[in-house]
Amino acid sequence: MNVYDSNRMAALLKPLGYDEVKSPEAADMIILNTCHIREKAAEKIYSELGRLYKIKKSRYVAGERIQIAVVGCVAQAEGKEIFKRAPYVDFILGPQSYQRLPELVVRSTGRRGPAFDLRFSPETKFDQVTTRHYHSHFTAFLTIQEGCDKFCTFCVVPYTRGMEYSRPVEEILIEARHLVKHGVREITVLGQNVNAYNGKAESGSWDLAKLIRSLAEIDGLDRIRYTTSYPANMTKELIQAHSDVPALMPFIHLPVQSGSNKILTAMNRRHNSYDYYCLADSLRKARPDIGLSSDFIVGFPGESESDFKETINLVEEIGFAQAYSFKYSPRPGTPAASLPGQVSEKEKNERLKHLQDVLKIQQSKFNRDCVNKKISVLFDRPGKKRGQFLGRSPYMQAVHVFSERDIIGEIINVNIIKGYKNSLMGEIKSCDSLNSKPMRVQH
Ligand code: 5AD
Ligand code: SF4
Ligand 1 in contact with 154 (CB < 6 A)? Predict the structure, then answer.
């Protein structure tokens, strides 16, 4: 979502004459788009700001003035504290006010005091459709929902991104058609709780399943993904869509956080481990090859060794194509930060290593199981080596191949010849081609 937001900001600043540059040293304005989800992410901002201050100082000595801005969830959570710790910051902007970026740039130029906007106004945030939401030319993110009302006890998102808001259907369809017209073949619709999507349409309100079916009708849109989902918001209709919408990719990121019901209750999650087993089962019945991904937190307050074992059991029982796992990080202002039974750093480290070892084995196995299969890959970038191209499989694996022909923008059925920890190696036979339409990108 931060990538999507950063691209929107770049597009918003274009009319003011700003363009992207490759390094902070070459910039007239530096915007740090920040994440507050875990302590490590937030702390990075201040060390990065220290580095940028040096650039600002040396440019000042050379008689030039550059602006530094902090935007995103750290700006929202830290507020004016940022100006205290880093007084050289020119302005800060919360994640729901990006439409006001041009105004803030102008306001902070030439004024003495710092400028800020930390209001919540998601309805207007999306007002403008721009062409700059690309991830690459052929894949794009499209935010359809923001915010969260779930209040998991460990999480800052409800405080930084605000309440759940779904963009109206028509606005999303216009943006999607616009992206496809400019060459995009794969869209990932985004939301903090994307499957809680409930957007207004002329015919009433639409859920995510209905939206996906409608997106799938856009001629030229070959692949659809959605992330991130909340288990309690998985509907029968959405699971059914995995069975009968060919463009919907067989991969789902569905965070479970823990395998222990005691911990899930303390986290205020609205699902238990049984619900999760049932969901995995239904998804696999709907789409037997589906790849499952998840998020895990180890060392949540009160997590005992046996609670942790239940997480390991869940992982072993379900089997994940890939997953993210984190040590619990107490976030100021969240209920879990003041719970008794905080787990020691040493135990957190041990549990994280144990869990990651198990997840790594599963990911390698998932990748190895692809060997000798034909898998469709959307190639969207050159590889590091000469003649090498990189793309994504339907299951989000990175796939690299060698080709004499430029295949960027094509979807090709590739023979998988090797499965590594984090990627696949493929081989293209001359007759292998699926939907490999000529490139439609308009430069
Ligand atoms: N500590 C550790 N991990 C967290 N996450 C969110 N908040 C915290 C926290 N306080 C993880 C969750 C979530 C992912 C985006 O980040 O697993 O799903
Ligand atoms: Fe945070 Fe996700 Fe829970 Fe919302 S559902 S509070 S975003 S972890």
Answer: yes
DSSP 402-423: E-SS--TT-EEEEEEEEE-SSE
Nearest CA to ligand 2 atom 1: 155
pLDDT at 42: 74
- 328 in contact with ligand 1, CB cutoff 6 A: yes
Question: Are residues 157 and 37 in contact, defined by beta-carbon separation less than 8 angstroms?
Answer: yes
Contact yes or no for 116/82 (Cβ under 8 A) = no
Q: So what's the pLDDT on residue 90?
A: 92
Return the structure tokens found at 435.
């939907």
> Is any atom of ligand 1 closer than 6 Å to the C-beta of 329?
yes
In the chain, % of residues over pLDDT 90 = 81
Give the single-character DSSP code of 244.
H
Q: Please choose, from the candidates 306, 320, 437, the residue with its C-alpha nearest in 3D space to the C-alpha of residue 369.
A: 320
CB neighbours (10 Å) of residue 384?
A: 7
- Record the tokens describing residue 431, joined without a space: 């007759």
Rounded Cα gap, residues 3 and 128, in angstroms: 17
Amino acid at the residue 9? M
Residue 335 Cβ inside 6 Å of ligand 2? The answer reads no
Å from CA of 43 to ligand 2 middle = 21
Find the ligand nearest to 2 CA: 1
